[in-house]
């Protein structure tokens, strides 16, 4: 028994993987998928991919100048969520010049929701892996225990050989441990990226609200030039009174 104990303590990761059975290969494939998804999410959820600051400043300056073609040119060079949303808004305004601001806001909201859903769909792979991995590990354990108890029922464990049943169950539980080892970091990565997306989404909503407010104000001025002139005349009168 001591020799068996010493031998089990000397097991390497490769030996444990081999004793876990064929389902360990499934867990290995899932772990490779998880690593790839994590790297992709790091790239797609960064600040520059969602809300680049230089793009926000450039859009503001173009709106002030009413230079909407330049905004489209900038958006074609950028693939960020913010630029794609602004591009959809400007194209809608060009195709529907008589559309009201309520319709413009609906277009912005729909496109922003689509961009957020793309990011959320990417990180959902991590949540799926975190849910599937323990189930695969549990399946491996149940399968191994079924084999062990079948051998017990066939009379393969008699007398002192009953100690071999404990060894069989121990090996069967390796897949459960492997599934948890994969599921825990996968769920931790999912929580991290979900928080990251929520932060960027909130900032993007603020930036889009600012852009739509600027567009609304400029359109209001263009549609009410008389009111703009009266305000300018009123300002001149105030200046004369102060003098």
Identify the notable features of this structure and list them briefly:
mainly alpha; 243 residues; rod-shaped; disordered C terminus
Give the gist of this structure.
By secondary structure, this protein is mainly α. It has eleven helices and no strands.
N→C terminal distance? 105 Å
Radius of gyration: 31 Å
What is the SS-derived class? mainly alpha
Average pLDDT, all residues: 80
Strand content: under 5%
Q: Note the main sheet.
A: none
Helix content, binned percent: over 70%
- Topology as H/E string? HHHHHHHHHHH
* Count of strand segments: 0
How many separate helices? 11
Give the tally of structural domains: 1
- Shape verdict: rod-shaped
Low-confidence stretches: 1-8, 230-243
Strand and helix map with partners:
Elements: H1 2-9, H2 13-19, H3 23-44, H4 47-50, H5 53-64, H6 68-77, H7 81-95, H8 101-153, H9 163-172, H10 174-223, H11 225-242
Helix pairs in contact: 3-8, 3-10, 5-6, 5-10, 6-7, 7-8, 7-10, 8-9, 8-10
Written description of the protein model:
It is a single chain. This protein has 243 residues and is mainly alpha-helical. The chain has one domain. 86% of the residues lie in helices and 0% in strands. The chain contains 11 helices and no strands. The chain has helices spanning 2-9, 13-19, 23-44, 47-50, 53-64, 68-77, 81-95, 101-153, 163-172, 174-223, 225-242. Helix 3 (23-44) packs parallel to helix 10 (174-223), helix 6 packs antiparallel against helix 7 and helix 8 (101-153) packs antiparallel against helix 9 (163-172). The longest helix is centred in the middle third of the chain and has 53 residues, at 101-153. It is rod-shaped, with a radius of gyration of 31 Å. The termini are far apart. The relative contact order is 0.13. Residues 1-8 and 230-243 have low confidence and may be disordered.
